[in-house]
Each structure stands twice: as structure tokens, then as C-alpha cells.
Amino acid sequence: MMRLDWSALLDVLRGCSRVVLTSHVRPDCDALGSELGMAGILEAIGKHVRIVNAQATPANLKWIDPDGRIESLAEKVRPADLADRDLFIVLDTSAWAQLGAMGDVAKSMRDRVLVVDHHVSEDDLSDRWFKDTAAEATARIVYEIGLRLRVPLTERIATPLYAGLSTDTGGFRFPSVSGESFRIAGRLVDAGANPTAIYRELFEQDTLSRLHLVGRTLAGAVTSHDGKVIVSTVRQKEIKEVKAQPADTEDLVNLTLAVKGTEVAVILIEQPDGRIKVSFRSRGRLDCNVLAGRFGGGGHKAAAGTIVDGPFEGAHERVVAAVDEAWLALPSAAVKE
Fold first, then answer.
1. CATH 3.30.200.20 corresponds to the domain 2-202
2. What is the structure's pLDDT at 335?
3. Which of 23, 100, 27 is nearest to 60 (CA)?
4. Per-residue DSSP letters for 52-76?
5. What is the CA radius of gyration of the chain?
């Protein structure tokens, strides 16, 4: 799906003066990097920009925002403080549920909302969309916006965009990666992004608690369908026992997909409020976006997610049943089994 009316988008961006940027709850590097990159681009053309999310930036990702630009409704900002914004840009999500408390703000300003995203699924967030589901990351779209606005790349813009691009492509290894992905990465490095420093912040900051949680998760993983499907779980009790943080659950699903022979990985992570975050990953045959859509979520074919209501045991049973059904519906899977 492509909604790329560049002329209309640039007119909107040039015509606004006071902008608020937001993204999804539990923000990742593509969300935060796209916000910071877009802020730098818009400020370069004279706009007043605030970045406000529903939740505070996770502790393990605070490095991406050294100036403390990103605010949150969880930390002092009130919805009324954003009433003076004439443009409300939602980045890296097209779902109401993913906006958390910022969703209510968006609804109150719906005529000012613009969505910039690369995910397939979408709700009725806005009448103004700028969407490219072929883009490997929202950071890629933001990079292209800066290019068309003729904003020079600076280290302040390049670093968060590189972080978003590199993480949403799994370190440039996902099928969405093209030669242009590497060429853009090179330009971002030339502008000041430091891959070594970014990698260190992303992957060499594990705590012992995080490693203990990884061990428990992998030890409890269960395979099915001749090892092609792997399902793991994380309960609140386990998180507390190893003294882990909520952010320590990030990327666990990708570790299980690394098991030899697996084609589909699923993880169910119990949240403090009793709901369950479910993440789906696939090597390509099974469509994760369709599967997540059955539970009100979405994403991409190779990676998607959702939030389901508890209790945990019932949610686990429903999710596993849906995964089994989806797997067996694949032509070759049905024949082999």
C-alpha cells in the first residue's frame, strides 16, 4: 500500500507553524528515531516542534535523545498544553490502540492529524495519510521527507534516523532491505551517525537481570509442527523474580526465531495490568499481519503484534490455536503433516 502524494505532504509541512509529533506506546528506535529526525527537519525549515508520547522513553533508549527533547503525558505534559498545535503528526503507527493516552488527544484534534507510517494495518486515525508499506522503516520515509524539503543532513538528524533504520531492518538483514537501504545508511554515517556507538548502546548494555530473563524464556520455549513453530512466554512473576525491567522483554521473540529450523516465532508477555502483549515473527511464509489482525493488532507480513485481554492461560490457548490454524492452512504444511 502506498499513499505517497509528495506535493500534498510538502504543502502541509510548509504551511504549518506549530507541530506536535507522537508515536506508539512502548516506543522503539524507529518510533523515537523518526520523531527526533522529523523534529530536526521541521525545525530546520522554521517550525516550532514538540515531541510528546503517551509513555516516557524506555530507560534503555534514553541515549537516543541526549537533549531530552521527548516529553510524555506520563511526565507533566497535559493534553491542554497541545491545543496550540496546528499539525499533529503520528509516526510509525496507524492504530488507535497503539497511541495510548495520546489517542484521546489525537481524537480531539482529528482535523489536524497527519499519519506518516510504513505498517500495513490501519484504523481511521486521519483523513490525511502519507504511507509506504514497502518502506523498511518509518525512518526511511522521514529521511526522504528531509531530502525533498532540501534540509541538509546533520549529526542530530542522522543519528536517530540511522538507529531507526538499522533496528527496524534487524541490522539490515530483513527481506525489506534493498541496496538503497545501505546507500541511505552510508549517507547517514557520512552526516555523523556512528554505527559503532549506536550498536554499543543497542546491544551491549544488557544487565544480568535481562540475561537471566533471556535464559528463562529460552528454557521455557516450546516447539511444534516438526520444529517449525516456537512459542515462548514471559510472566510478571518471572520478571519480578529476576528483578528485570519491562524493557528487558524487547527482542526476546527474535532470539527464539534464531533457533535452527523455526519459521514462525510467537511470544506472549504478561503486562502489569493483566493484559498480554503478543508478538509474531515469520520468515515469510506465514503472514504475521493477518494473524495479529485476528486479535485486533497488525504490523507487517514478517513481524506484527497485538495486545489481548487475560487471563493468561486463556489468551495463550487462543493464540496458540490461531497460530496452529494459520500454519496448517499453508499448502505445504498441510501436506507434510
1. no
2. 45
3. 27
4. EESSPPPGGGGGG-TT--EEETTBB
5. 20
The answer to whether domain 208-336 has CATH 3.10.310.30 is: yes
Q: What pLDDT does residue 1 have? A: 54
Question: What string of DSSP letters covers 200-247?
Answer: HHHHS---HHHHHHHHHHHHT-EEETTTTEEEEEE-HHHHHHTT--GG
Euclidean distance between CA atoms 256 and 123, whole angstroms:
30
Which amino acid is it at 192?
Answer: G
Are 46 and 178 in contact by the 8 Å Cβ rule? The answer is no
**C-alpha–C-alpha distance, residues 179 and 197, integer Å:** 23
Helix axes 155-168, 195-203, angle to 10 degrees: 50
Are 268 and 319 within 8 A, CB to CB?
yes
Give, rounded to a whole angstrom, the gap between the first and last alpha carbons of the chain: 34
- Residue 120 scores a pLDDT above 90: no
CA distance 300 to 174: 12
Q: How many CA atoms lie within 13 A of 43 on its CB side?
A: 17
Q: Where are the domains of the chain?
A: 2-202, 208-336
At residue 223, does pLDDT exceed 90?
Answer: yes
pTM to 2 decimal places: 0.84
DSSP state of 96: S
Q: What is the pLDDT of residues 251-297, one digit of tens each?
A: 899 999 989 999 999 999 999 999 999 999 999 899 999 999 999 88
Query: Phi and psi (nearest 5°) for 127?
Result: -95, 0
| Grid cell 497541545 in the structure block, residue | 82
